[in-house]
Design brief:
By secondary structure, this protein is mainly alpha-helical. Helix content is 52%, strand content 6%. The protein folds into two domains: 9-93, Glutaredoxin; 97-269, Glutathione S-transferase Yfyf (Class Pi), Chain A, domain 2 (Up-down Bundle), CATH 1.20.1050. Helix 1 (26-38) packs parallel to helix 3 (81-89), helix 1 (26-38) crosses helix 10 (194-208) and helix 9 packs across helix 11 (217-226). It is globular and about 55 Å long.
Amino acid sequence: MPEIEPKERYLKDLEGLHLWHAPMSSCSQRVRIVLAETGKDYTSHLIDLAGDEHASPEYQAIHPKGLVPAFVDDGRLFIESVDIIQRIAQPGSDLANSTSQDLLQLADKAQVDLKLLTFEFLFKGVERSSKESFDAFQENHQNEWLKQFRRDYKAGFETSRIDAAVTRTDEAFRILDDRLSDGRPFLAGDTFSLADVAWMPNVHRFSLMDWPFERVPNLQSWFRRVAGRPSYKKALLDWQNEKVAGAFAEYTGERRINGTDIRAFGSLSG
């Protein structure tokens, strides 16, 4: 859905670029990377996901699915990260022209598995939600898929579901690795593009889970390359809560010792 009609009339009166986002949301990271790459100024509206601000009536009046990011460009509202980054890059730019639509679609499709594996292998070690906050989320949020996801997470994801998500992620990374096997520096060719932007947050996120990137050496080299860009630090690392990242690392280490880390599931376990 490239553009939606705002429910809140004041959004139509906003001038310039406005971004509703969360610091460690991978989709928010995509948008901030493109904003950094293009040097565009924007008004930041932070959404506290840990505090379930995305379940508030105020935010759901902006984004009907209660997700981040949401983006307003001179009164026009966009809510899907792939559409947003294409909007910011603008047709005709090197960033947009040199991209690959199939890689953007693959990155978009990967978000469901990224979310599940993030909750299982990272958030599980730091999140301590109360019964009250869980009940409030179920009552206030209007996104039925997201509410069911929270219920599944609270009950514990089935092993088969984790296995499938790991295997699909492994397959996607192998596709990217194969694309890079001809020596190209970036995913779509010789020029840094939106395809690289779309995948940078995902590879970063899985590195926090200690994904075995030695299985995909071309992708590993690619990530070292793109992680050296100023936009990676400005749009991703500078927004990362290092205390939380440290807790992720500790939890990942504990699961590795216990043999229950991400390498013990799906196609990584063979």
